[in-house]
Design goal:
289 residues; mainly beta; 10-stranded mixed β-sheet; 18 strands
Length: 289
């Protein structure tokens, strides 16, 4: 938790009036799975006012560089695993094995400095560096990690999201918000077409194309549990992209849900226009110039 303005002012005043304080690292490494590792180069555990506890760890890191521009810096971090007393395992796995299997790759790192007076009382802390780790390299009792500043995220040739006519969501994902369970409709096989394995007739009365690109899954009969992508739907007939392993029987039940071609019209027909994330009126590249 960041310090308040008054706490920062008090820290500045203390730093300006003393030259006998001590400074230690507070290193927070959060893995991609959400495991928070908190280390310090102090020889005793340190607990910040917001309740975070940092345990003593033997490591070496590069000196930090301060620039007035957007220069991207890397920080090299070496953990001396063979001398670590309290953090030689991560989630019950030896650190060398955890790092060797990619457990530290892509982790978020925050380096803070904490200041103590000669009596060991905490005077405050400041954030000095934030970044993400690259692939970790393990050695004989060491783990080497390269940490790239978060400023690297600005070094992109294209924006994170590109203007395009089609929706950037995938149907049923978190930003689409449609629920695949509530969107599913129960149907029954009412007819077959000769020996075809990719077509069934049903009594469903939705408009042609309503289930195109969706999914159909049998819930009874010999095909129970089998699922296919819908190629086309018209007049109650369902054609799948891939054939079924065998023909279903008339009376078998299934669950079918609509798909999406990412157009504004399709999103409107599904009653989800509010969450449409495309720009259908963007001109073609040859006319934009």
């Amino acid at each position: 938790m960041p310090m308040t303005d008054s706490e920062i002012a008090a820290l500045h005043a203390w730093l300006a009036g003393t030259d006998e304080g001590k400074r230690f690292d507070l290193l927070t490494v959060t893995t991609r799975t959400g495991i928070a590792l908190r280390w310090t180069n102090c020889d005793v555990p340190l607990t910040t006012p917001d309740g975070r506890t940092f345990v003593p760890t033997s490591y070496e890191r590069d000196r930090l560089k301060v620039n007035a521009n957007l220069q991207i810096d890397d920080v090299q971090l070496t953990l001396n695993v063979d001398t670590v007393d309290t953090v030689d395992t991560i989630a019950g796995v030896p650190m060398l094995h955890f790092a060797g299997r990619g457990g530290l790759d892509g982790a978020t790192v925050m380096l803070e400095w904490i200041f103590l007076d000669v009596a060991g009382a905490q005077k405050g802390y400041v954030t000095r560096f934030e970044g993400k780790t690259g692939p970790a390299e393990t050695g004989l009792g060491t783990v080497d990690v390269s940490i790239r500043s978060l400023l690297a995220m600005l070094n992109r040739l294209v924006p994170a999201e590109i203007y395009q006519p089609g929706c950037r969501n995938t149907i049923y994902d978190a930003r689409c918000t449609l629920n695949p369970v509530t969107a599913a409709i129960v149907g029954t096989v009412t007819g077959l077409s000769g020996n075809r394995l990719d077509y069934i007739a049903s009594g469903l009365g939705q408009a042609p194309g309503f289930f195109d690109l969706g999914a159909i899954r049998f819930t009874s009969g010999l095909l129970a549990g089998e699922q296919r992508t819908v190629r086309a739907f018209a007049a109650g007939g369902v054609q799948t992209v891939l054939p079924w392993p065998q023909q279903p029987a008339i009376g078998d039940t299934f669950s079918i849900r609509p798909g999406c071609d990412r157009t504004k019209a399709r999103c409107t027909s599904l009653g989800n226009l509010l969450n449409f994330r495309g720009e259908p009126h963007v001109p073609a590249p040859e006319t934009a110039a």
